[in-house]
């Protein structure tokens, strides 16, 4: 039993190490990229609806055009899920006291406390339920912009090398292209 727990802890630490964000400050992002906290659970937020007519269906092979993380732009990926929602760019101060994160892409409506069926306007103050990065869950945030779109959860192997990233949340249709 002890060996299994030790191996699990090692695997989790390895996932955190391999999924650290790249420095994208020149792209309008101001993130502490070492704090990316990916989970491979594939858990879908309550209330999120499967997209009726996504451009890329689950199982589709795609190329990523997003640069949320090091090695993401140009990576081959597989669509795990496609969902209709509102996606937000936001600024937030991590609940664990880290540096302010600016222009974080993407948090979806279902990951914002008390958002329910409301569309949130730029400047709205919200509390995050998302847990994409350390310190995100419970953080106070401000909406920068939003778009009604299809968001995708994807598995991909970074072009910079390393292990496959499972269930990355979220990329939008315009951040994908056909293989």
Summarize this, please?
This protein is mainly beta and 179 residues long. It has 1 helix and 8 strands. It has one domain: Domain of unknown function DUF1541 (SH3 type barrels, Roll), CATH 2.30.30.1210.
Approximate shape? globular
Task: Estimate percent helicity.
Answer: under 10%
* CATH classification class: Mainly Beta
User: SSE string, helix = H, strand = E?
Assistant: HEEEEEEEE
CATH homologous superfamily assignment: Domain of unknown function DUF1541
CATH architecture name: Roll
CATH topology: SH3 type barrels
Mean pLDDT over the residues: 82
| Total domain modules | 1
Distance between the termini: 43 Å
Low-confidence region ranges:
5-37
Rounded radius of gyration (Å): 16 Å
Number of helices: 1
The main sheet comes to: 8 strands, antiparallel
Sheet-strand content, in percent, reads 35-45%
Sequence-ordered SSE layout with sheet pairings:
Elements: H1 2-18, E1 49-50, E2 61-64, E3 76-93, E4 101-108, E5 125-127, E6 140-156, E7 165-172, E8 176-178
Antiparallel strand pairs: 1-3, 2-3, 2-8, 3-4, 3-6, 5-6, 6-7
